[in-house]
Design brief:
299 residues; alpha+beta; Nucleoside Triphosphate Pyrophosphohydrolase; 6-stranded mixed beta sheet; 5-stranded mixed beta sheet; 7 helices; 16 strands; globular
């Protein structure tokens, strides 16, 4: 089983309708000129999307931003070229992460374009909220390059928004799929195993290590399928599939509450939402579901 995933329609949080306009970020004069009557401000409730009466992202005139707010330049809206900004929350303000179910319910209301714009803004705003002080000397940092950098005036260090790679993997053995659940998941919910890529290892090595650590299953032939930006807080999900060389499980209960092998028909029933399905499948916005749908479509 091989071959990449057709990403039309785009995976959730991708298909960005904003032109990032990197060439404008380092031009203070251009950024200043863009803060005119055409400029838009993305309305956020902390880190949650603020929706209008039609369930779309709410865009306000930039003048609606607090006078003392730090602004980040999100880019230019491709449909009309208008500059788009987001305001950083006041220092010390933290937004609750909320439950997994509430997070997915909020994502389900947004169009593909809105989800991509929101994901970009959420990741960037959250990074600023977490990096107000220099990691080298501890001094307060300042927004630079339109919000795509923070500079330290004390030691001249520059800091940049980060994106953490996460391997998320389907594991197949004799036509069955290995899925797991964490204790924090909603009842009955199973998904693909996943874990952060650690320093000094490849994506393929991360897949093999995580599956062995969490489920005790050795794997081989790791193949890449597709990726997804995931703004909770700022990750890049690297979707893969691997073949298990043994189906015996040795579950690390500190990582997983449970892990099971599911037959093809059971996965299909779960994705279809059938009554009596053996598990609750990941929602449409999660790459885990996209990967499972891809797997079922393979000959």
């Amino acid at each position: 089983m091989s071959g990449g995933l057709d990403t039309t329609p785009p995976i959730a949080f991708s298909g960005q309708p904003l032109d990032r306009a990197d060439h404008l970020r380092a031009d203070p004069d251009a950024l200043r000129r863009m803060r005119d009557e055409d400029a838009l401000l993305l309305a956020l409730d902390g880190l949650a999307p603020d929706l209008d009466e039609n369930g779309r992202l709410r865009w306000l005139p930039l003048s609606a931003a607090p006078a003392d707010a730090e602004l980040v330049f999100l880019g230019l809206l491709r449909r009309n070229g208008r500059p788009a900004f987001a305001a950083l929350p006041a220092a010390g303000r933290a937004a609750a992460a909320g439950s997994i179910a509430a997070r997915f319910n909020a994502m389900a209301t947004l169009s593909a374009d809105d989800l991509a714009s929101y994901g970009l803004a959420r990741s960037l705003v959250d990074w600023h909220a977490r990096h107000r002080f220099c990691a080298e000397c501890g001094a307060p940092t300042l927004v630079a390059k339109g919000g795509w950098q923070r500079d330290c005036p004390a030691c001249s260090a520059s800091h940049f928004p980060r994106c953490d790679p996460v391997a998320i993997m389907l594991v197949e053995h004799d036509g069955r799929m290995l899925l797991g659940r964490q204790a924090r998941f909603p009842p009955g919910f199973y998904s693909a195993l996943a874990g952060f890529v650690e320093p000094g290892e490849t994506m393929e090595e991360a897949v093999a290590r995580e599956v062995l650590e969490e489920a005790g299953v050795p794997v081989e032939r790791v193949r890449y399928i597709a990726s997804q930006p995931w703004p909770y807080p700022s990750q890049l999900m690297l979707g893969c599939i691997a073949d298990a060389t043994d189906d015996r499980l040795a579950i690390d209960r500190t990582e997983l509450e449970d892990a099971r092998w599911f037959a093809r028909a059971e996965v299909a029933a779960a994705l279809a939402g059938e009554a009596g399905a053996p598990f609750v499948a990941p929602p449409a916005q999660a790459i885990a579901r996209t990967l499972l749908e891809w797997w079922l479509a393979q000959p």
